[in-house]
UniProtKB/TrEMBL annotation:
<comment type="similarity">
    <text>Belongs to the short-chain dehydrogenases/reductases (SDR) family.</text>
</comment>
<protein>
    <submittedName>
        <fullName>SDR family oxidoreductase</fullName>
    </submittedName>
</protein>
<feature type="domain" description="Ketoreductase">
    <location>
        <begin position="7"/>
        <end position="191"/>
    </location>
</feature>
<dbReference type="InterPro" id="IPR057326">
    <property type="entry name" value="KR_dom"/>
</dbReference>
<dbReference type="InterPro" id="IPR002347">
    <property type="entry name" value="SDR_fam"/>
</dbReference>
<dbReference type="Pfam" id="PF00106">
    <property type="entry name" value="adh_short"/>
</dbReference>
<dbReference type="GO" id="GO:0016491">
    <property type="term" value="F:oxidoreductase activity"/>
</dbReference>
<keyword id="KW-0560">Oxidoreductase</keyword>
<dbReference type="InterPro" id="IPR020904">
    <property type="entry name" value="Sc_DH/Rdtase_CS"/>
</dbReference>
<dbReference type="InterPro" id="IPR036291">
    <property type="entry name" value="NAD(P)-bd_dom_sf"/>
</dbReference>
<dbReference type="GO" id="GO:0016020">
    <property type="term" value="C:membrane"/>
</dbReference>
């Protein structure tokens, strides 16, 4: 039985998919929660589904593209709970578009949400964790944080960037009893492909086969909590697609060959 009793956990992207499943899993493990994303009505729906009292859940809308708002949001969390034990950077947006057809503005938007949003929120929360002399940052990356695939150039770049930043942070703050866990999910059954941005900057609006057949978000969330409880620095979660991470590590030429020949741009 996982135990996060009395822990205050702030989850971004808590309005759907993996973030919603993480909210359920942390709530069942005894944590108090801050639920953040843009859609307040979805956050309220998630809040109402949790086995927690109203005082144990704060709905706190956030737009990860607006880092100037973060200090005020952190203040609201401190007013409500007076501490932050775990910060989960889960909010994010994927991509379906070729490099040759995607304007720079698209790369900048995906970096702003997936990378700079997490960096800015970490910088806003870090002074609190340093003062507490404890804390944990959980970063939801992706398999494409380990290698790039067609139609995901900006998304892969944003996830690779997270590894660089949070590996560095981990090495800086371990003496302060602050831990960093990076999670690399494979295919998880969420709306990520529906919400992905196309070359034109609008929604892809299609459920990809890989996500449709992917791991249930509830299972993914359970495995994330286990990794956090076990103090893992990095964990890969998914089905047989996660073998690609080991190919990249031990046979990178073979993975590159397979990606070029068998991974159709889609
Ligand atoms: N599903 C997969 O196969 C898979 C695989 C690898 C990694 N991941 C990662 O898992 C994380 C969660 O994705 P998901 O699969 O659960 O997809 P999802 O259902 O589309 O959830 C994405 C979440 O991010 C939030 N979000 C998007 N843009 C935001 C912004 N500008 N500001 C604040 N929140 C924002 C969304 O909430 P609002 O729209 O309400 O703002 C939503 O809660 C993402 O980081 C994704 O890259 C997913």
């Amino acid at each position: 039985m996982l135990n996060f009793n009395q822990q205050v956990v702030w989850i971004t992207g808590a309005s759907s998919g993996i973030g919603e499943a993480l909210a359920q899993a942390f709530a069942q493990a005894g944590a108090s929660l801050i639920l953040s994303a843009r859609r307040i009505e979805e956050l309220e729906r998630v809040k109402n589904s949790l086995p927690l009292s109203p005082a144990q859940v704060l709905v706190l809308p956030i737009d990860l593209e607006k880092p100037e708002t973060f200090p005020e949001l952190v203040q609201q969390v401190m007013d409500a709970f007076n501490r932050i034990d775990i910060l989960v950077h889960n909010g994010g947006i994927s991509q379906r578009g070729l490099v040759k057809a995607s304007p720079l503005a698209l790369d900048q938007k995906i970096m702003a949400v997936n990378y700079f949003g997490a960096v800015a929120l970490t910088k806003a929360v870090l002074p609190i964790m340093l003062a507490q002399k404890s804390g944990r940052v959980v970063v939801i990356s992706s398999l494409v944080g380990k290698f790039g695939t067609p139609m995901r150039s900006a998304y892969a770049a944003s996830k690779h960037a997270l590894h660089g930043f949070f590996d560095s942070l981990r090495s800086e703050v371990w003496r302060d009893n602050i831990r960093v866990t990076i999670v690399c999910p494979g295919y998880i059954r969420t709306n990520i492909s529906i919400n992905a941005l196309t070359e034109k900057g609008d929604k892809h609006n299609r459920m990809d086969k890989n996500q449709e057949k992917g791991m249930a978000p509830e299972r993914c969330a359970t495995l994330i909590l286990k990794a956090v409880a076990a103090n893992k620095e990095e964990v890969v979660i998914g089905g047989k697609e996660i073998l690609a991470v080991y190919l990249k590590r031990f046979f990178p030429g073979l993975l590159s060959w397979a990606l070029k020949r068998f991974m159709k741009p889609a």
